[in-house]
Amino acid sequence: MNNIRYMHFMYAYFLQFGKYMSEEHFKHRDIDRFGSCAPIELACTYKTSKGVMFDGKTDRHFKGDMIYDGESVGKILKNVDAKGSNMDYQMRADFHNDGEILEEANLSLSETVGKDYSLYTHLHLKLHNDGE
To answer: What is the pLDDT of residues 55-69, one digit of tens each?
Structure first.
């Protein structure tokens, strides 16, 4: 299970967020995690600050909230048999590095469909100086 979480982190950090590091506001497409493979569009903000939380460190904060799309939401609700329910999808991430090398990261993903289906994944990654 840890390998799957690590792979998801690598995918999110390098392929999803990495290409947007120079933009402050953007849209990003992700896929439903309940098996319908319906695309979900996220309205995202990306903020970078230097030396605020950690001395001389670069801190990046990512926040993505679902943009409502009736067709995609309808497919997802139908797939989990939750017609007429609400849906919420969010992605959050914090990355801290020394300007070049990633030192610590937190990545959270939550998807809620109605009252019966909820998914929350959180990954914390911390790299130590001694290679652990």
So the answer is: 567 788 888 888 988
Question: Which residue, among 7, 49, 47, has the nearest Cα to 26 in the 3D structure?
Answer: 47
Tell me the backbone φ, ψ of residue 11, rounded to 5 degrees: -60, -50
What are the phi and psi torsion angles at 45 (to 5°)? Answer: -125, 145
pTM of the model: 0.70
CA distance 22 to 24: 7
pLDDT 10s digits, 40-90: 888 888 887 766 555 567 788 888 888 988 888 888 888 888 877 888 888
- In three-state secondary structure terms, 31 is strand
Tokens of 65: 């909230």
Give the whole-angstrom CA distance, residue 102 versus residue 75: 37
**Which pair of structure tokens corresponds to residue 47?**
């903020």
The separation between CA 13 and the C-alpha centre of its own chain, rounded to angstroms, equals: 9
**What are 10's two structure tokens?**
């690598």
Strand arrangement, sheet containing 102-113? 25-31, 39-50, 58-67, 87-97, 102-113, 117-126
**Contact between 98 and 57 (Cβ < 8 Å):** yes
